[in-house]
Amino acid sequence: MTEVPLLSRSVLDRAEELRSDTDALRAGWADALVLKVNHRGQAHVDGAELVLEPASSLGAEPVSGAVFLGRKPDGTHLWAVRVPAMIGELADLRMIGHRLDDSSAGLLTTAVAVLAWHDSAGFSAIDGSPTTPTLSGWSRHSAGTGHEEFPRTDPAVICLVHDGADRVLLARNGTWPERRFSVLAGFVEAGESLESCVAREIEEEVGVVVSDIRYLGSQPWPFPRSVMIGFSAVADPEAPLEFKDGEIAEAHWFEREEVRAALKLGDWTSPADARLLVPGSVSIARGMLEAWAR
């Protein structure tokens, strides 16, 4: 990787020490700002900037379901709330993530991830009892046992497989339109190391054995609650490709010049009639390909 992945650029001061300080949070609410997010992960934008509204417009003190995100350099508290319906100009991370500054990128990425967790954590995974938000939105307590649960993050590996020279292996998922390719990825299983996951996923998806597995970088991917952990690995381009798990529709080895040409075309939305289209800049996959193609 030659640059920090776009959704990893956060400079947000999370101010974790304030999450349990109800007095400080109540005091800060009067001047706080709130980010409203709908169930599609969209927020109000003004051009390429997030629109933050006065928290006091929601009530005199922190409202139920609000998540404390942190504070601005001037000390202003920042919150996020789920809003069922919104009007006006809306956008999500996939649309504007590449245009947001470091502060806004971290703000929206965190808000989308934590609010999505709350949506699916209304009942305890331990005893099935209803849960209520605590710690200013960073945990939930079971009404039955008092068991505390925290926001869940699912680790996934994403790996750029190359031949050690000028070819890279890219694949198309069966649900993607033709010509849209990316690097290979998969979720980490229980009891598995990241490197073991890389080797297993690639062997399952395309039937290739890899070596020289190296860490590249990581990026939050709140769709709904993942973190993408990037690697590179080497494989034999002469080995037969086998799509064992049924997820991959096709995979090919592409020359470095083909990848460079695809990067110049833009991303998957390009209307160009090209053999290869690659992901947009908001994805860590794009950064991995750009670094390899240099």
Keywords:
294 residues, alpha+beta, Nucleoside Triphosphate Pyrophosphohydrolase, six-stranded mixed β-sheet, NAD, hydrolase, NUDIX_hydrolase_dom, NudC-like_C, metal-binding
Characterization of the model:
The chain is α+β, with helices and mostly antiparallel strands. The chain has two domains: 6-120, Nucleoside Triphosphate Pyrophosphohydrolase (Alpha-Beta Complex); 154-293, Nucleoside Triphosphate Pyrophosphohydrolase. Helices cover 22% and strands 29% of the residues. It contains six helices and 16 strands. The protein has helices at 22-29, 93-96, 102-120, 194-206, 256-265, 284-293; strands at residues 33-37, 43-46, 49-50, 53-54, 67-71, 77-82, 90-91, 131-134, 139-142, 148-149, 154-162, 167-173, 184-187, 211-221, 226-234, 248-255. The strands form four sheets. Strands 11, 12, 13, 14, 15 and 16 form a six-stranded mixed beta sheet that branches. A hairpin with a 4-residue loop joins strand 11 and strand 12 (167-173). Helix 5 (256-265) crosses helix 6 (284-293). The radius of gyration is 21 Å and the shape is globular. The mean pLDDT is 95.
Treating each run of at least 4 consecutive H or I residues as one helix, how many helices? 6
The first-level CATH class of the largest domain is given as Alpha Beta
Taken from the alpha-carbon principal axes, the silhouette is globular
What is the CATH topology descriptor of the largest domain? Nucleoside Triphosphate Pyrophosphohydrolase
The counted number of beta strands is 16
Task: Please compute the radius of gyration using only Cα atoms.
Answer: 21 Å
Low-confidence stretches: none
Tell me the strand percentage band.
25-35%
Mean pLDDT: 95
- What is the share of helical residues? 10-25%
Number of domains: 2
Distance between the termini: 11 Å
Helical/strand content category: alpha+beta
What is the succession of H and E elements? HEEEEEEEHHEEEEEEHEEEHH
| Annotated CATH homologous superfamily of the largest domain | Nucleoside Triphosphate Pyrophosphohydrolase
Secondary-structure arrangement, i.e. CATH architecture of the largest domain: Alpha-Beta Complex
What characterizes the major β-sheet?
A: 6 strands, mixed
